[in-house]
Amino acid sequence: MRGFDLSLPSGIRPFQLAVPWYPVERVSAVLKSGLMKISVILPAFNEALELPETLRRVAAIPEVFEWIVVDGGSTDATVSVAATAGARVVSSAKGRGQQLRTGALAAQGDVFLFLHADTWVTPGAGRAIGRALADPEVVGGGFWKDFRDPHWMMRGSRFRCWTRLHLFGRIAADQAIFVRRNSLEQMGGFPAQPLMEEFELCRRLRSIGRLVLANERVSTSSRRWRSRGVLRTYFRMGCIVALYTLGTSPERLVRLYDSEPPRSDPGTRSKIKGAKERSEASAVES
Questions:
Q1: What is the mean pLDDT of residues 36-60?
Q2: Under 8 Å CB-to-CB from 193, ≥6 apart: which residues?
Q3: What is the mean pLDDT of residues 31-58?
Q4: CATH classification of the domain holding 35
Q5: 126 lies in a domain?
Q6: Which residue from 92, 125, 82, 124 is spatially nearest to 15, judged by alpha carbons?
């Protein structure tokens, strides 16, 4: 994949590591191959259960140069699970926008892929990004999205991906948004707001180029929809989008978003322990 306008800026920004780990063999292999280098950035807060499978899939993408988990102060095993799975772990204040901004400042790739902890990518994701960015007018984009184990009212996700971009000019955060490094720097970095950060990101990116949907899909968990109720979640999200459009600040909206936490799962601790053990066993085998 040569010939893309994916030049690196001069200098490397400092960053704070919670776990001092560097994927030396991976870095060397990608540099020698001449592939486009993708930095995957995942914000996380108490995501020990979801991370092992997500990171296993990230590692299967040949173009991935590094994967960075930006921890927002987790109280579970997120940090150790991420490190065991081969991630660099960066500390940040809690808040998705701030965490993603911190991760972008730490990243060294040509392209940044912002990924939720419960969103799964395919091995062809890197090639799809390369094809999308072959057009020099394209500054970023996302993927077509499916839900895993969806309620019937959640069907039609791919149609919503199309209408969201072509009618409203934006891409949802759980569609795995990718951006050229130089384009992100040109627009001032990732917006550090606590909610609706993808709205602001897409708005700024559209001012300097085009957004597209790459010809590949991602799948994301339906856990929050099921735990809060599908209809209630649609209504809640609709209200938040409407209030944001009318000028309500993200700081006020995040309180509304967090005002009704999902129902607790009594088996969460045992599941997290099992996930960590599986991740450690996988690391030993490899």
A1: 96
A2: 95, 97, 200, 250, 251
A3: 89
A4: 3.90.550.10
A5: yes
A6: 92
Angle formed by the axes of helices 51-59 and 268-285, nearest 10°: 30
Tokens of 97: 């926008």
Measured between alpha carbons, how far is 174 from 116 in angstroms, rounded to an integer?
A: 6
With bands split at pLDDT 50, 70 and 90, how would you rate the model's confidence at 13? very low
Measured CA to CA, the distance from residue 208 to residue 137 in angstroms comes to 9
CA–CA separation, 70 vs 136, rounded Å? Answer: 30
- Report residue 282 as tokens: 């996988």
Main-chain phi, psi angles of 161, to 5 degrees: -60, -45
Residue among 114, 118, 99, 112 at smallest CA distance from 54 = 118
Nearest partner of 207 among 136, 161, 266, 139, judged by Cα: 139
In angstroms, the CA 157 to CA 112 distance is 24
Q: pLDDT tens digits for 238-278?
A: 898 889 889 888 888 888 777 655 544 444 444 445 544 55
Q: Convert the pLDDT of each residue in 79-90 to its tens digit.
A: 999 999 999 999
CA distance 252 to 30: 43
User: Residue 22 contacts by C-beta under 8 Å, 6 or more apart in sequence?
Assistant: 88
Mean pLDDT value of segment 68-76: 97
Instruction: Supply the pLDDT for residue 250.
Output: 87
Q: Is residue 7 part of a domain?
A: no
Name the one residue in this structure whose structure tokens are 């409203």.
Answer: 168
List the domain range (segments joined by +) for residue 160. 17-285
Q: What are phi and psi of 28, to 5 degrees?
A: -60, -40
